[in-house]
Amino acid sequence: MATSARDPLGEPDCAAEEDWQTYVRNSVATLALAKMGLALTLDKLKPVYEHANESNNLWIGNGHPGEVGSNRLGWVPSLQLPTLLAPDGPVERRLNEQWLVNLYTMWDERYRKEIAVQRGVEKDQVIVPPLGDFRRIRHDIIHCQGVATDKNSGKCEVFQHWVEIGKPIAITTEYVYELVDALHLLLTVVDGGDQATWGPGRPLLS
Question: What is the per-residue pLDDT across 47-100, written as a single tens digit (0 to 9) for each?
Fold first, then answer.
């Protein structure tokens, strides 16, 4: 397989892998753009929180809060805006959580199946430990109020250092980068093509 310094991972082995690569790239780009938006929003709202007091709230919705027919979707205390919108703050971490949940769901419900079909193996034979860890972390985010449990994220194989049992899971920007790096060592066909598994060699993400 020919490689280069600019593209050290070569080409995908099947169309489904290429589709998965494209989805991951677009997903990461969407997350990055959303985070850029947080910084821009915080800068735009500077006059709001710099002159706010404890009784001031930023209402979110369409139209002016006092106008008939306006809809208020939610609100946040104006003084909390710098904390909420800070890098790796509560809003950014929520975006990271939603990204993780979405990425794993798309992998397991769509791309894993398609890759298995095109590889000629069963879905359960496509074993990817980094994404298996996403399954465990996703379960705790959705079903355990975001707290790491020994039954789920405590069994992570690759990202054990992301979690501490009994503590809230905090998906930071650094972890997003780490996951993308981990995807550079995915999906090698072994045993004469009878099983697709994780390991050095054929990557799934370039």
Answer: 999 999 999 999 888 877 778 888 888 889 999 999 999 998 999 989 999 999
3-state helix, strand, coil in the chain (%, to 5): 55, 10, 35
Residue 15: what residue type?
A: A
**From CA 163, how far away is CA 166, in angstroms rounded?**
9
Residue type, 133: D
pLDDT band at residue 12 using 50, 70 and 90 as cut-offs: low
Entry pTM: 0.77
What is the rounded distance in angstroms from the CA atom of residue 115 to the CA atom of residue 17?
A: 6
Q: CB of 196 within 8 A of CB of 126?
A: yes
Q: What is the DSSP code string of 142-179?
A: HHSTTB--TTTGGG-SS-GGG--TTSB----HHHHHHH
**Euclidean distance between the first and final Cα of the chain, in Å?**
13
